[in-house]
Amino acid sequence: MDSNRHDSDKSTIKKAHKVSPEPCTSKHSKHDTHSEDRTTNSNVFNKRETDVPVVLKTKKEKRKTDETPIVVYFDLETTGLDVKTESLTQIAAQFGDKKFSTYIKPRCRIGKWALENTYLKYDSKSSTLYYRGQNVSSKEPPEALKDFIHFLKSFRRPIILAAHFCHKFDAQILYKQLIDFKLWELFSSVVTGFADTCVMFQNFKPALRCHKLEALASFYLPAEKFSLHNAVDDTRILKSLVEKKEMKICYGMTVSKHATKLNYTFPKNLVNINIPQEKKTTKDETPIVVYFDLETTGLDVVKESLTQIAAQFDDQTFSVYIRPRGPIGRWALENTHLSYDRKSLTLYYKGKKVTSKEPQDALKDFVDFLKSFSRPIILAAHFCHQFDAQILYKQLVDHHLWEDFSSIVNGFADTCLMFQKLKPSLKYHKLEALASKFLPDERFSLHNAVDDTRILKSLVEKQGKVDMLRNEFFQTCLQTKQYFPKGRAVLRFR
DNA sequence: AGCCCCGACACGTTAATATG
DNA sequence: CATATTAACGTGTCGGGGCT
User: Fold this and answer.
1) What is the C-alpha to C-alpha distance for residues A273 and A282, in angstroms, rounded to an integer?
2) CB–CB of A285/A373 below 8 Å?
3) How far is the CA of A77 from the C1' of B7 (A)?
4) Cα–Cα–Cα angle for A383, A384, A388, nearest 5°?
5) Where are the alpha helices (DSSP H) in A411-462?
6) Can you list the alpha helix ranges (DSSP code H) found in A221-372?
7) What pLDDT digit, counting tens, does each position of A327-344 carry?
8) Which residue is nearest to nucleotide C4 (CA to C1')?
9) Hey, which end of chain A has fewer CB within 10 Å, N or C?
10) Strand B positions with any atom < 7 Å from protein CB?
11) What is the pLDDT of residue A203?
């Protein structure tokens, strides 16, 4: 029963952690004087979120404004791991050459691990703190925290606090302590967010197996001597690490990026921070993207037969009409304007005779066209995962060309999927709809493979956000690995 | 050690959607 | 008109990685 009570106690504490709207609102009201741009309470979250990216611009615009947040590194030592119950023993922080450090008289016993590794010992009778056996001056937690805040305040700029693993440790314990000593309001009027350098390194150096501070330090700063688990040293090391030359390239990007992504709305997300994981970068070997389109006698990918293939890369185009093996379905007849006379083996497009080939030859030509680029290829078509890729697969297998084909084609990209992701607000993503929306002036003959291919290419390439498109695009391509799990054809088709 | 968040998988279900 | 796939859920399990 006792334990029960205990548990529920704990959970309420936790809840208070997570939700605790109180300090938040009080913060706004308090958020006095200079920030007149914060209009209403309801807007504040958004404001905050848009607030931070300012950091990014520090690169271009000289940091002239006082409103640009600065990054202050910090580190805490505590009596143990539990962010809810343990007590502080040390705080250190650093911005530029400005350093802050204070020892703190813990309110509870120093845990065994901490005792041995932080070298901090406390004699509660004489209320004296010892570091490596030496008496050091120490303060009561509220005083120490106040000093800390004053240090931060002295910069007269918004502050992003950066520490290693701070989202899950330092920020949380600090929050708890600040709330307990009623200093949260004061604190949050200066600090706009926390940045977790550990997350940063994990994203930035995914190849490293281990991202603890110790490992990073010994890897990147092997010459540096420091006393691990002393807050001052840890802070200094962290700063050197992040600001190291090699990191410099990314420094502007990474720190600010992570700070940006923090979107720290105090204290709502304090416990629960979610930094979107960067998608792992794809291999550098970038295949070319060839757009293509097929026309067929109908919908059934297994039974129906090809009538046309078109493809395009840059300005190199490929097109071939194909004599179908079966009758052309009614819909196709009316919409692709292709008709076939079996007896004379003649294909007509819009009533006019066109040269056509047997499927075998047409497919061979198509494969040869693709091969002519001598580069890995990603074939892109609209809705191709469900249609073009499947019918093509069937046809290529039937004509013993799949081996050849799959030796150069890395995958299929479904541009329909791409646009669905890219323009979720659009109800329809069929080629026709996209074309009339984004290329209203373009004239083309719908359901002619050549035109459809051209239009598709323009659509993809003329969109404004090229980068985003590309990214999305390749991501979609990646999905097609399912077709080639081991670089080899595997039948996800019946 | 104690904790807990996360991402990775592995399922299953459902509704929407484009292709000729 | 056929139809497979996907995204978007929900569920459950498992292991890894960090902090003092």
Assistant:
1) 26
2) no
3) 29
4) 125
5) 415-422, 431-438, 449-462
6) 231-243, 245-262, 330-336, 359-371
7) 998 888 888 999 999 999
8) A386
9) N
10) 1-8, 17-20
11) 66
